[in-house]
Amino acid sequence: MTIETSILILTKNEEKNIGKCIESILSSNYPGNKYEIILVDSNSEDRTIEIAKNYGIKIYKLSRGSIGTALNIVLEKSNGIYCFKVDGDSIVPPDFIKDAIEILKKERNTAAVTGKRIENNKNNLVGQMYAMRFAKDKFGYISTLGGNFIFNKNIVKRTINKFPDSHCAEERLMCMKLNTHGYKTKRIGTISMIHDSSGENISLLNFIKKNIWYAYENYVLFKHLTNKERIKYADPHFFLLLIIAFSISLSLYFKDILFLLVIALIYIAVCVKFFSKRVYFGTKIAIITAFIDSFLFYIRSLALLYYLLKPSKTEYLKVEEVT
Fold first, then answer.
1. 89 φ, ψ (degrees, to nearest 5)
2. Which of 74, 169, 212, 250 could lock 217 by a disulfide, CB 3.0 to 4.6 Å apart?
3. Under 8 Å between Cβ of 211 and 295
4. How many domains does the chain have?
């Protein structure tokens, strides 16, 4: 039977999860002779590749993290009509692949499908924040994808052609380009991933690093969108940059109000975040996460400013097929 779906698993030091991830795919209700599995590893330093080799799947190793390159590999080297992007720290429930493929076949203007996300670890703040984010997922036609999703390979190749060799921004870039060309992305009620954040670093420094990474995502998007798309999909971090610049200008003029302006902006951001979260999670968790989110929002905006002003350079990337 002809391969219908190419499953792309992304990994980086996932020796504790990769076996469970692959096993969940092999146990799905989607026929095994209709799919192939391709694993793209971002230079893991543990036994991820060693474990994955036991399953007889195609494996590529990158010299550095690049989700864009991983997607380009599956666009160029896979045999399927559809591509299923899977995070290596997740479990794929049995019905999602089959349900998503049926929708892509039925709705010709729908180019990508994701599903409900569940966080398996709620014992620490990281897991609770993931759970909060997943609980706010909207269903039906959506503007951005997240986690595990399936897309029509031919449509994506026509609209994007090639992803940038970056380690982020691929999901949002794909949605924006698909939307510009009149295609839709959809979230269905079937669970697409059971995520496990138990192995993640929960330090404040790691939170800051991750949010600087998110700022780089905004920078990558800015570089690869047309001017019309930049206006249409304007990111709130750019607006905050304008507010910060305005605050600094006023402080230089009046000499003593910068501190008050910054405090006022933080207060407004915290209030907005608090009231949006309290509806879902109650007062106590909402207060904590509102302050954390607002602080990280400022970190992302300042990091974005840094990337916009910093001269860009091309990083070396080697792709090696593992046999």
1. -100, 25
2. 169
3. no
4. 2
User: Residue 221 phi/psi, 5° resolution?
Assistant: -60, -45
Tokens representing 311? 């001269």
Stated length of the chain: 323
Does one domain contain both 158 and 21?
yes
Beta strands in 181-282 (DSSP E): 184-195
102 and 234 inside one domain:
no
Residue 245 and residue 176 share a domain: no
CA separation for the pair 181, 45 (Å, rounded): 40
Please give the backbone phi and psi of residue 61, each rounded to the nearest 5 degrees, phi first: -115, 130
| Pair (245, 153) in one structural domain | no
Q: How many CA atoms lie within 13 A of 218 on its CB side?
A: 25
Helix H or strand E segment including 206? helix 204-224
Condensed to tens digits (0 to 9), the pLDDT of residues 197-250 reads 776 665 666 767 767 777 777 777 777 778 777 777 666 666 666 666 666 666
- For residue 183, count other CB atoms closer than 10 A to its CB: 21
CA separation for the pair 262, 267 (Å, rounded): 9
**Distance of alpha carbon 239 from alpha carbon 223, whole angstroms:** 17
Q: How far is CA 250 from CA 117, 201, 267, in A?
A: 44, 39, 19
Please return the burial class of 138, using the count of CB atoms within 10 Å of its CB with bins 0-12, 13-18 and 19+.
Answer: exposed
Element (H, E) at 268: helix 258-281
Range of the domain at 185: 5-200
Residue 104 structure tokens: 């892509």
Confidence of residue 8 (pLDDT cuts 50, 70, 90): very high
Strand partners, 184: 110
Nearest to 215 by CA among 302, 292, 146, 291: 302
Q: What tokens were used for 176?
A: 């924006």
The CA dihedral of 228, 229, 231, 235, to the nearest 10 degrees, is -170
CA angle 156, 86, 200 (to 5 degrees): 130
